[in-house]
Each structure stands twice: as C-alpha cells, then as structure tokens.
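Protein details
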Amino acid sequence: MPLATFFEHFELLADQPDATAKMREFVLQLAVKGKLLPQNPKDEPADKLLELIKTEKLRLVAEGVIKESGDDSPVEIEIPVNELPVGWVQTQVGQIILRISNGCSALQTKNPSKFPVTRIETISDGTVNLSRVGYVEGLDQKTVEQYRLTSGDILFSHINSPEHLGKTAIYQEASLLLHGTNLLLIRLPTSFVVPSFFHLTMKAMRQAGYFVSIAQHAIHQASVNQTKVKNANFNLPPLAEQRRIVAKVDELMVLCDELEQRQQSRQHARDQLQHSALHHLLAAREPVIFAAAWQRVRDHFHLLHDTPDAIPQLRQAILQLAVQGRLIPQNPKDEPADKLLERIKAEKLRRLRERDLREEEAALEITGEECQHPLPATWQWVRLGEIQIFTNGFAFQSKDYETSGVGLVRIGDIQNGEVAMSDMKFINPSFLKSIDSKFQVRPGDLLIAMSGATTGKLGFNRTDQTFFLNQRVGRMELVIVEPQFAANYLATQIQENLRISSGSAIPNLSTEQINQTVFPLPPLAEQKRIVARVEELMRWCDTLEAQLHQTRTLGAHLLASTLHHLLAA
C-alpha cells in the first residue's frame, strides 16, 4: 500500500483505543528512516554536512567558544548499504553536536530572584515551559553567560524514572534561562542540524526504548551518561531534507490531533447515547414508556454496545431491572412477599434459639424516602436484618498466621465475586479450637467487605472448603432467600455502601448499617426465576464482550501488520 493511500484512509483503522498514538510513533519511525518523503538528488548530501560540522567545531575550539573533547572520534559502524536513503549518512550524536554538558550544581536553590533556571519539570511536550522553572540569586556575569541557553538548544532528561528518561525539549525563547542540574544541554550547529529534526529523532529513539536499554538502573530511577548519548547512532539527512521532514511531520501530527479529536467526539457521542438510553430504560415506570425505551435500546444496540467498555454498564442495567422486578413478568400464583416474610421471621427465630443467639429487636419502620423505586404488587420492601443472620469476623492477628492449616478469609481474598485462595493466610487448627464455630465460612456462604476502598464488595465461597472469617469481613446468612438474588441487589448498592461508609480516613460499614439496608423482597419462586434469567443474560454479555474484544484485537493486529509492512517496505 502506498504511504499516500494509507494516510488518506487511516481513519478507517483509527477506531482502536491507541491507534493515533501508534500513528504518531509510525510517523516518527518513517521520518528518521528516510521513508516519509522522497529524496531530492539535488540536495547536498549529508556527508558534506559532517565535514562542515567538523570544520565549524574546529573554528569554535580555536576561538575558545567551546572546549575540545578528547573522545569525539567516531565509533566504527557497519551500515547495510540498502538501509539508508541516498544522500543520508549514519553517524553518532557526538559527531553532529557542538557540546553536551551537565548543568551548574550551584543552580539548585529555588529562592525567587531574577535568574530563572531549568528543572526536570521545565520539559513539557517537547518545548520549554517557562512557567515551571526555578530561580537563583547572587550569580556573577561569567556564570550567567556560561550556563545561559541559546535558541535551538536541546534539553535532555537523563536522570529520571524510566517512563520519562530521554524526553527532550527545544529552547526557542529569547528570554534569559540558565541550565540547571538533572538535564543535559545539547548544543547544535543549527546551520547544519535542524533542532526540530534532532528532537524528533531523539523522540523516536525514546519511543523505541533505546534510552531505557542503555541506562543504568537504580531504585525508582534510571540514568544515561553523556558518553552513551554521544555514542548513539544518528541517521543524518541532507539539510534541505531535514527541513522538509520537519514540515511533513508537523502536518501529519496535526492530522493525528484531528483524528484523535474526532475519535473522542464519536466516543463521547456513543457514551451520551448509551447513558441516555439506559437512563430512560431504568427510569420508565409505565409499561408503555418502558416498552418504548426498551425498543430504543434494541434499535440502537449496535451503536450503544460496540466496544467492550460498554458491557459493564449493560450488566449493571440488567441487575437494576432485575431487582426492580422489571426483567421478567410476575406470576400471580406465587406466594407473595408478605407471606414469605412471615415464614422467614419464624425460621430466623428458630435458628437463633437453636444456636442460643440473642433475639434481635424489631426492625425500624421503612419510610417512603428509603423506597428507591416502586415495586411489583407481590413484592415488599424489608430491612436486610429481617431476612438474614449477620456475623462479623473474628479479630485474628498477623502473628497467628501460618503457611498451612485452615484458610482465613480477609477482605483481599474476596475477588471477582468469590473467595480466592491465591494469597490466603492460614491458621493452625489447634488455635481454632477456642474460636466460636459461628466464624466459619462454609461452602456457598455470601461474604461482604466492611471497610477499605472496596467496602461493599461481595463474594461467595464457591470452593468445597470451610474457612474462618477475619474481622471486617461479614457473613450474610440469608433465611429462605436466594443468596444470589441478594448478591445481585447488593451489587447495585456498592456505591451507596461507599457513601454511607465515608466520613473517616478508612471507609467503614457497621453491622447495624448493613442490617438497616432496605431490600426489595420478591416471592421466592420469582427470585429463582430472576436469578436464572440474570445468569442467562450475563453469559450472553460474556459472549458479546469476548466477541468485541476479539474484534478489537483483530483491528489492532491489522493496524500493527499494516504499519510493519509500510516500515519494512
């Protein structure tokens, strides 16, 4: 595929999450390999530039403007003849720069004064950000002139975290700025090397991971010394071609910006449409309005749910409809919730007395403000404490942990809706003989996190093992209520749980807060039908999500393959 055709139709491949980022990298790689533009045989070849640069450096050394460097002899490079365009030459950074230097160590103070000095933060998006400089005072004129930046100077981040290592910026201002520490200053012979071309070459090398590969690594920091920078290979084009490449890169980066903006606009429109459609669906109370809202979702389904990112909201909408009694029709023959509640109370009382547990006080009356939405006629709002026996965990201490024994369920062991054993701690069985059996977690038990950033998350013990319950993890023993229906409802209430648990450094839910939570109780038979329908729809969501991921992966592979072949051409 010709490059011109690719750029003309790139938007067809640009609907991947990172497509425009890959496009920018691709443009830079084409630029530094001489594949972005055709060569002009009339241009003065780059080997002549090297001679001119060498002559210029000798002149400046003779005039005392720069110091002679003892390690500027070129490193021997084997260059495959067919890898460089005609007129280009491969050399090293050290051969095409006038100097590379560290900043003045005395320029570290940040006291406000008249002398601005560079800092790591001064580099911003390839330019020098004069609003993010430091200041020094008490400098003599010789020091000021020695460390003063000139237009076209390159600042290079050589000591920083790996993700920032190798960032460069071009200083193009006329105002005074001094060269501080933690940034290397690279001065170019701007009559022969265009600063913007040098910058985009360094940027391409950084994107390719070159500077991280040659860096010395320490804890949370990496560094590249001057010698390694100077010895880095550099593909140098003729001067006229450098200028053409910079202009073309600027033009294509503007195209990338426009594509990215259009992509973001499309995504925003999809998000708005999805939010509006689901909002109207969930807010519809009258059957006719609900049917119209559902028809809208069905008619625009291919637009609303065309990316994997849209599926979580669809799952949440399914749960919301399920616990509001609008996912399946009611059966008037079902035992109504008020009769079920009488049976629940009797069974709960029997279990409490059988275990010699304290009988609970009568539940608080539910106010109209607490009823979040209307319920079907056969349903009833109840307090969660009316339909469950809740147990908070035992305060085990870390000194009690063993490498084997009986598993202990902590908050971190509740993952993806179930108890995970991958990082589980254990307790010696002999120690557990003195712990009340009410703290056991049996197969099928439903657990809830009661503190921390994940307050309200839920998980079932889907293993065949019995564990013990750690503090701040609660066990919800539902009485004549489908545990999965309760989990479905509580999954829609996690944000509300986080809200009522806030107010301290660590979010915290009390047993009382959990028991006072209002709960929409359907007939037991309907609970079972709802759970079955939700499971069916969730499996469908899984399939849809997998297909969308596959489509996205294929699109990413197509884009990567296209870029690879264009670079190799």
Q: What stands out?
A: The chain has a mean pLDDT of 85. The longest strand covers residues 473-478. The chain has three domains: 1-34+245-334+523-569, 44-237, 368-522. The CA atoms of residues 352 and 359 lie 7 Å apart.
